[in-house]
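User: I'm writing a tutorial on reading structure tokens. Could you give me a worked example: one chain, its sequence, then its tokens, then a sentence or two explaining what the tokens reveal?
Assistant: Sure. Here is the example chain.
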Amino acid sequence: MALPRLITPDGKTIELSRETYKQIQKLLRDGQVIAPRAHRGHVDATYGKYAGKPSLIQALLKERKAELEREDSKQRR
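And here are its predicted structure tokens:
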């Protein structure tokens, strides 16, 4: 019987052990693929950094609204 294979997006083929194949199937079935802790370090480093400060999204939306108003006033001239 042939070993299970994984084909990467760039076309490379990786042979998997039966155990690894079953683990991947379980992850896909559960739908909970979680990044390893090492890859989440940059998220953890900034988590809560801006807590309690003014919302940056609101500031960007306010700035964008003012920018659109300036553009409209230029077009009306």
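What the tokens reveal: Residues 36-77 form one domain. The chain has two domains: 1-34, 36-77.
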